[in-house]
Design goal:
single chain, 378 residues, alpha+beta, nine-stranded antiparallel sheet, elongated
Length: 378
Amino acid sequence: MKFVIQRDHLVQSVQDVMKAVTSRTTIPILTGIKIIATEDGVTLTGSDSDISIESFIPSEEEGTEIVGIMETGGIVLQAKFFSEIVKKLPKDTVEIEVQSHFQTVIRSGQAEFNLNGLDPEEYPHLPQIEEGNGIKVSTDLLKTMIRQTVFAVSTSETRPILTGVNCQIEDGELSCIATDSHRLAMRKAPIETNHDASYNIVIPGKSLNELNKILDDTDEPVEIVITENQVLFKAKHLLFFSRLLEGNYPDTSRLIPSDTKTELTLSTKEFLQAIDRASLLAREGRNNVVKLSTLDGGIIEISSNTPEIGKVIEQVESQSIEGEELKISFSAKYMMDALKAIEGTEIHVNFTGAMRPFVLKPLHDDSILQLILPVRTY
């Protein structure tokens, strides 16, 4: 194998596939990046058997030559060294040549590296996913949906299914739900499907975080193909495979209260900043708890008291308060996460009592919902 390639394209592709490469793997060859050169261009692959990422660099794009292929072939190179070398090469073009016994020479300007490679035939094959029954979602929307839900997945392995985001597709609507059993985030959006298939899958939160980092901010569509135990996201020149979590995701619809006892309408930004200030004294230790009380005249009091540090009290004006008066305590971190995920200058908060979960939504928008369980304080 021998080719010359534009360094910036190579660096970008290497960075993308590196997101799937891990040093902790039981299959040694997976610490490497697989590079395959064909007449059409160069394909790089990284995998940790949970996530696999394939990035394609075409020989030419819009009339500009990116890769000059002298000899087709393949190699697997140690990801850690290869990625560092490529970043630091002196010139804008890089020549990569594989000699006998998988010895690989990387040249750029006056710099020349020799790396020991491995046989690309021994690299595990990516899952074969049949085309044709995919759904399309614009990249922007997909990234937003991930951002608004993935923070609420569980980080504890006691219930592995909760470490993923539950994605359901039915009647042309995609809904994503994440919960760690103390809070829940949900986002829905209409999507294009060319068939009436319905899906109910759980994608690991870790995979979605990596996917979010790789996808460019464009309105180009991403195609999502789902099989029994894998999901594939196809963007331009990029394939992102992730395994799915096995098991049944709990039915979360019954967690969401249908009745309301106290209803607030607030400015998202003012509320977020007040919670942020109140949490300054509540960060110590595990409790991180902030109290909210409704007062007369549409005023809400937000306070936090940590005996060994001090206390903070702040009043926030709400646009409206309806229903019973309320005192409730909750995690400041959960509240701030939820408020940051909600788009919209004003939010609606519905409480059903001091010990029941409460719901946050943007005003006039039912496509996103955040639910938080209060904290008992005596």
